[in-house]
UniProtKB/TrEMBL annotation:
GO biological process: rhamnose catabolic process
One of the record's GO molecular function terms: racemase and epimerase activity, acting on carbohydrates and derivatives
InterPro entries documented for this protein: Dimeric_a/b-barrel (IPR011008), Rham/fucose_mutarotase (IPR008000)
Protein name listed in UniProt: L-rhamnose 1-epimerase
Length: 115
């Protein structure tokens, strides 16, 4: 599984509404995420709007392409786009900044045990 962490910036004045929207994500959106390979998916939000997302997937490219092919994702992304800064017309699920993984405990433990 590929571990993916990403960053977006929610507009500070929209943080509370963003949290409300994610407290009750549409059931068909949840199913689409599951069906297209978004596993162990979490969002973390700081009070100033810094949003960090994490997911595990066999392929982030395939997971994004799978979602892009769904009607529910098009509706969800259109509604969510107004919450974010600096996307310049790109959908939030394609405009995020991917963060580089520099440490993973289990990987290093496995390497140490294999030595």
């Amino acid at each position: 599984m590929e571990r993916v962490c990403f960053q977006l910036q929610v507009k500070a004045e929209r943080v509370e509404e963003y949290k409300l929207r994610h407290a009750a994500v549409w059931p068909e959106m949840l199913q689409a995420l599951k069906d297209t390979g978004w596993h162990n998916y979490s969002l973390f939000l700081r009070a100033d709007g810094l949003l960090i997302g994490y997911l595990e997937t066999p392929s982030i490219e395939a997971a994004q392409a799978g979602m892009a092919a769904t009607e529910v994702n098009a509706r969800w992304q259109a509604e969510m786009a107004e919450f974010f800064e600096d996307l310049d017309g790109v959908a939030p699920d394609e405009g995020f900044l991917r963060l580089e993984e520099v440490f993973h405990l289990e990987d290093q433990l496995g390497a140490a045990e294999g030595s």
